[in-house]
Specification:
The complex is a heterodimer of chains A (342) and B (304). With 342 residues, chain A is mainly alpha-helical. Chain A has 14 helices and 2 strands. With 304 residues, chain B is mostly helical. Classes of the chains: A mainly alpha (342), B mainly alpha (304).
Chain lengths: 342, 304
Amino acid sequence: MSAAEITAAPTGRGGRMARAQIVNAALALGLIGFGLGAWATGETFLVTLATKVAILAIAGAGLNLVLGFGGLVSFGHAAYFGLGGYTAGILAHHALNYTPMFEWPVLFEGTTSMPVIWLVAMAVGALAAAVIGALSLRTTGVYFIMITLAFGQMIFYFAISWPAYGGEDGLPIYVRNGFPGLNTLDPIQFFVLVVALLLAVLGLIAMLARSRFGLALQAARQNRQRLMAVGIRPGGVLLVAFVISGAITALAGALYADLNRFVSPSMLSWHLSGELLVFLILGGTGRLFAPLAGAGLYIALEHLLGGVSDHWQFFFGLLLLGVVLFARGGVIGFLAGGRKHG
Amino acid sequence: MLLLIEQLLNGLQSGLMLFLMAAGLTLVFGVMGLINLAHGSLYMIGAFACAGVAAATGSFWLGLAASIAAAAAAGAIVEVAVIRRLYRRDHLDQVLATFALILIFSEGTRWLYGSFPLYLNVPPSLSGSVTLPGGIQYSLFRLAIIGAGLLVAVGLFLLIGKTRIGVQVRAGEADREMIAALGVDIGRLYTLVFALGAALAGMAGALVGTIQSVQVGMGEPVLILAFVVIVIGGIGSIKGALVGALLVGLTDTMGRVLLPSIFDLFMETSAATSVGAALASMAIYILMALVLIVKPGGLFGARA
């Protein structure tokens, strides 16, 4: 099958690719328009909902890098999401309570500055992904799925049984962390900040996908033997992608913690790992904007079906089953036509 | 020392129940190449069927029979309606479709029974405790579960190793086109294997549900432990599932007892308890990582 749309665009499968780009632009503008519209009409709750979509889309974009481009089905991405969230929570916890986080080698009292928190969260996510990835990438296929799931659970149970930061009860962040020059407590300013990050992340992934690295990554999905034959070790490429992916998803986790002003082990739960996968399949596997389309659809369904029935997940399960069995292109595949790799 | 032996027995008991779960998963993967997340839902269905029938009839044994029958039936129905379409799909589709089945089963059960846990009573003939050689008091029901687990394990080995069905199952693992060419109805065989795995999961659900409680979502932690078991044992290997299940059951149980007291030797008690508990909760995953470093294909796995 063809490479991802962004790499194939210049090779001129003309109309179809252009259509995909129109869909992408419509998705991005739709999210921004929805957020601004909700703000203009004073619907603060809907602004928060749109922010949630953007954050989950960042998390999904992290997963999409390894799944959509590298073909690695990671079933443990909640680990990086939750670690990012706990990074934000713990740094803010120490700063707000004036309890030093550590005193050696230098006194560190935590921080409430978002840029610092993001960097630390991404470093933590990258480190965790490096360790988990190095172990998990020794295997392939179904082993890889189960092992990433198991490592995710390991961190989940650790968070539950480690009492210092709230254990099972989670950790509140009393005041949303700050960003220089912005009032992050204002929903629309936080929304704009998050959307800017989402576009930056998607831009980065588009750039990566077009680079030598991205081509090698997609070749690793398609045929590892051939990649080795041209002198590139697939393991190294996949591990680097896994680390970047962990960092991006951890960034989303830090934002999510700030959105809710609360971190709990549920951010680490395997349900969340499953939901991230669901976003990608709903959006259309292998598409750059799949995480945004999928997260938007998921949150919209949760909101709409949830208003109709407490048991909305029952109906959502039926819908998901239908999509997997009969409509494999997802939303973007439906709108833009063409099929990505299967 | 007495506590230690008691915990060893508990570890053996939880390991054998894990084996019942892992055996079905590993058979389904080995024969059909399918990763089934909904296996935990079958465990839950078994537990709820047992609780429902036991409450209606007053007999635990009827409940246990119902749990096996209900899980097997649910497994067969799901195989024919959904799973069958997934054998030729990639693992991602299998994961997502069976994830969808979990949502449907969990939410459906919550709809029918509500969110409150149900409790099963231990049958009168197995209640109370027995005194083991050495003066250990141990729950008779847990001892019976150990016995039942061992019996099922032996039965399963005989079924796979000695019977005609077992030959077909093993042949199906090796080369499915060939056995179809030899006139074995491969579709029926798949349904049978799936229902067998489901029945084992349902039985485990009913037995463990009697010790703990019966509630929505009870299958998920067990499912993930069963994944750890088959990764350690090697996917597709029943022997691997047994060894892996016992390793995981014993590591988990003993870790929870021993690690806090080991840390107690050189830390203050409250810190030792929390560090020990946190490490104990990670022990089986560390065990899995170690096995993977040494043998990426699992202890008894053929392929990695």
